[in-house]
Amino acid sequence: MKTKCVVIGIGNPYLQDDRAGVVVAEQLERDGLACQIEVVHTVGLEVMDKVQGFERAIIVDACKLGNAPGSILEVTMDDIFTTHALVNSHAITLGTTLKTGYVCFPEEMPSEIRILLIEVKEIKEFTQQMSPEVERAVAEVVERIKGMVGAMAT
Amino acid sequence: MKKIEINPMTRLEGHGKIAIFLDDNGNVDDAFFQTVEFRGYEKFLQGMPMEEVPRTVSTVCGVCRGVHFTAAMKASDGVFGVTPTSAGRKLRELYFSSHYVEDHTVILYALAFPDFVVGPEANPAERNVVGLINAVGAATGKEVLRRRSLAVKIFELLGGKPSHPVAALPGGWSKQLTEEERKQIEAWSEELVGLGELTLKVFDDVVLKNDKYMQLVTGDMYKVEVGYMGSVNDQGQVAYYDGTQKVIDSAGKVVGTFKGKEYLDFISERVLPWSYLKFPYQKKLGAWKGIVEGPGTNIYAVGPLARMNIAQGMDTPKAQAHFERFHATFGARPVHHILAYHWARAIELLNAAEKCLALSRDPEITSKDIWNKPTSCPGEGVGIIEASRGTLIHHYVTDSKGIVTDANLIVSTTHNNAPINLAVKKAAKHFIKNGEVSQGMLNYVEMAFRPYDLCLACATHTVNGGQSPLEVEIFDSNGGLYKTLKNF
User: Fold this and answer.
1) Mind listing the domains of chain A with CATH numbers?
2) Are residues B96 and B216 part of one domain?
3) Which of B11, B463, B468, B486 to mutate to test the interface with A (most CBs of A within 10 A)?
């Protein structure tokens, strides 16, 4: 029997806007969201481990895709699945780790995954201070996820 | 010889760049690999309480989280002048060994095996982890991934927190193991040993029994003759968590051994204008001689192959049998064939799994005596470990309150910077002839640095449409840009 929902925030908590996903997850936990909350610091196979056993998963990560800083994108697994041969083992993408999960563990993976990306402005320095654009996006994503989870409950 | 100037990449963290220069005949004259410098973590750590450092540096890299954590934890022992209890040390080793199993599994199956199982000349769209699973079958892929997840479970159970560990204490470990947990870890470890054996069988079936691949493994195009460094235990066997650093030259002659702060007597770092990444070299073999291989070079490499070369054997029986077969296959030592890194990594996977099993059965592993409380004034500490990718050094100086005033981190990819450049140049020279270059050639060049498993994007993972992008720029003999190949 799968548990209902997991929210996973991905990011480096010390790397400027890259921490956006982590901050979203931490805020949702503080707000008492009725959902399993997880934080991971990379998009490797760990994400596949974390979503298994849940009916639904919501994943929040930072992105750098050339949009205006603070833009919020909702993408599908296929949108972010890349087929490049890896330069190193750190380069496993979120799309690849999720697709790997659906190939190997189809019965244990969520029936629905929502992926929210927040476009970064700065990811060069080690600081816990995000840019104002990403701060605003984080607040918006927190509310959006509350709405998603609320809709699941009804 | 024309002057070569290459501006380091700054566009995106984790962006690697290879510049290849052709001569008048379109053959490779020179080649360089560039990446950004390790990104200022040393500065960030200054002003931080030393006891917070292991937890913080575990975020240096989302993948290598356990290795930075362990190196900093060992350094914190030195800073606080305390030695871990026997049980505390064993818990640390068990934790670290499980991390090895997880990390080596990912490196082998996601990075190394696609080149061999799917094929080095296969469609790039298939030459990845999903393509690998399609080739070997979902059932096999599932079994490998399931067993890998058991290593992660041990790692998280001992580390005290999902993903990033928090159990480090100067002088020991904060998480005592219950008998119930021990039994669980023992059962999981038995499966990890099976994972190690399966992995070596895959390597045997796919690579060792394939003449074409063995020509690559034993060929000169992937041979880099440098010195090596790694840790050994009191019996001269490969050690990961703790040991004595042993350094050999390119002929296998022992240059020396050292511990802790003595690394400063053995390693110097050279700064070159075209790269943010420093180039370490063996100080005992003289001043910087350039990025050169062969007799007399003071360039050295670290990682699984280096450990096979500096050690007398492995400390577990199954891995020892494979160690002997490894060296019997190549004959002469040291082994300079860099594709052998993958074989060495598979042997270490089995070795680490056997260590997990042995430690889980150690009666002391559930002892309550897991922490020696520090009593002396803080000062200075060096933590040296063998990370999955090679020697990792963390060196900290604190004030009298234990606040970090100086930090120095030398990571595996930095140690391997010069050998990687040599490897890329050699592969490029072999595969590019008469100005004919193709996308397929990019993979053969990539195969020259995949064995080192570069830590390019160490502290960031931001979705950028295809991570760790690699760009190859090829210049003609007049310095003009002849062709650009990208994997992004």
Assistant:
1) 3-153 (3.40.50.1450)
2) yes
3) B463
